[in-house]
Automatic annotation (TrEMBL):
Transmembrane segments: none
Signal peptide: none
Pfam family, one: DUF1330
Protein name, per record: DUF1330 domain-containing protein
Organism lineage: Bacteria, Pseudomonadati, Pseudomonadota, Alphaproteobacteria, Hyphomicrobiales
Domain DUF1330 residues, every copy: 2-95
InterPro entries: Dimeric_a/b-barrel, DUF1330
Coiled-coil ranges (or none): none
Source species: Bradyrhizobium agreste
SUPFAM superfamilies reported in the protein's UniProt record: Dimeric alpha+beta barrel
């Protein structure tokens, strides 16, 4: 089942986050993920949103996401993400309608 990783980021050190971002695709493309959105100015339609960026990715299944997120390559670059932004990251299961 497709899963979606949604990250809401509040920047704390832009230079560190930019280092992460510069290396992200080299790691990401190895794990069958798809980047669906990366927006630093999403339009808030309802409620408060105290973040600076939203990122949405899809993976074929949870195992593919976990292979990416726990890989040594990602763990190495994620140090800069963690230094550069506070994050809330959600893993959401895709929806399969009942037939």
């Amino acid at each position: 089942m497709t899963v979606y990783a949604i990250a809401q980021l509040k920047m704390t050190d832009r230079a560190a986050y930019d280092r992460y971002q510069a290396r992200f695709f080299d790691v990401f493309r190895k794990y069958n993920g798809r980047l669906l959105a990366a927006d630093e100015q999403p339009r808030v339609l309802e409620g408060a949103w105290p973040h600076d960026k939203l990122v949405m990715m899809s993976f074929p299944d949870e195992a593919a996401f976990l292979a990416f997120s726990t890989s040594p390559d990602y763990e190495e670059i994620s140090r800069d993400r963690k230094a550069g932004a506070q994050a809330t990251v959600l893993l959401v299961k895709g929806f399969t309608p009942a037939v």
